[in-house]
Write a structure and sequence with these properties.
Order of helices and strands: HHHHHHHHHHHHH
Distance between the termini: 51 Å
Number of strands: 0
Largest sheet: none
Helix content: 55-70%
Shape: elongated
Structural class: mainly alpha
Strand content: under 5%
Number of domains: 3
């Protein structure tokens, strides 16, 4: 039984998630989670299969229309999931639809309309291939380089987001042609074809939402961190030791005894961003201890010594 009606939690049982939403079977498949999970919780299963639990829950919650969080998303895990989704859709889902579609229309009659329907689907499948190939060749490698700290000069995730649209509209058009205009018996094969088309449409919508609502924001945050780091490193390399206002704010809070997590909350920044700032400040000033940084802050008027408790 799901413990919360708001969102799935790490302590929920995997089988309860599947019973709540059978579409999560696809999520399990793309994370390579086998059946036979018994009474294991999401946390236990993710730990056993070395899957980032926060990323799994974000995807499962989004697909199920529940609240989700991207604060602790692990991008390598998300990229692996999206690549598996591409492979499933391109190598299994679309070919299966085509096979059943061909059988369905050929059972009735092989005429000009039937030929055009198959051609329509083939053109749509090519469009999906191009869409996902662009992500596999351009977008995902860009993110992997970003994770290494490498900045691309001619690409940002906003370039992808601004052009990223759902590829499900034509699939819905094909379904509507059968349901509203193509008068032919509702055979088992045609029923199966239309059922598969609907399922594929739902899968593609979820896939697009995962990229728009989880991947893009997570990469934007990473870009901000990496670009900040690179700018600081460039300043250090050029001999520029002048502190920015943000760096002074962080030094002041360090001098007051706040930990990185507390500083992140105070400044509404991510923990990773504060950690990056601290590293850059240490490299810029060649000061690595909190005590020495506090003395530096006092000497340069960044903090009033009377406001600091002497420990």
């Amino acid at each position: 039984m799901i413990k919360s009606s708001i969102r799935y939690q790490a302590t929920d049982k995997v089988r309860d998630l599947v019973e709540d939403n059978t579409q999560l079977l696809l999520v399990l498949n793309r994370f390579h989670i086998p059946f036979g999970f018994g009474e294991r919780t999401v946390c236990e299963m993710c730990e056993e299969k070395e899957i980032d639990c926060s990323t799994f829950l974000a995807i499962a919650n989004l697909i199920s229309g529940r609240r989700f969080s991207i604060n602790e998303i692990e991008l390598p895990t998300l990229l692996s999931y999206l690549r598996e989704a591409h492979s499933y859709i391109l190598d299994f889902r679309l070919p299966d639809i085509r096979d059943t579609l061909v059988s369905a229309v050929h059972q009735q009659r092989l005429d000009e309309v039937a030929v055009r329907i198959i051609r329509f689907f083939d053109e749509y499948a090519d469009e999906v291939h191009r869409h996902m190939d662009y992500e596999d060749r351009i977008v995902f490698p860009y993110i992997e380089e970003l994770l290494k700290g490498n900045v691309a000069k001619n690409f940002k995730i906003s370039d992808f987001a601004s052009k990223h649209e759902s590829v499900v509209s034509k699939l819905n058009e094909l379904k509507d042609i059968f349901l509203q205009h193509y008068a032919m018996p509702n055979t088992r094969m045609l029923n199966r074809a239309l059922f598969n088309i609907s399922a594929c449409g739902e899968d593609l919508v979820s896939h697009c939402e995962i990229e728009n609502l989880i991947l893009v924001p997570a990469v934007e945050a990473l870009e901000k961190d990496v670009y900040t780091t690179n700018m600081s490193q460039q300043n250090i390399a050029s001999g520029n030791r002048e502190l920015s206002q943000r760096e002074k704010d962080i030094i002041r809070l360090v001098a007051h005894g706040l930990a990185n997590k507390e500083i992140a909350d105070r400044l509404s920044l991510s923990f990773h961003t504060i950690t990056t700032y601290r590293k850059n400040i240490s490299a810029k000033l060649n000061i690595h201890s909190t005590a020495a940084l506090t003395i530096f802050a006092i000497l340069h008027g960044i903090v009033n010594p009377k406001d600091i408790e002497l420990k």
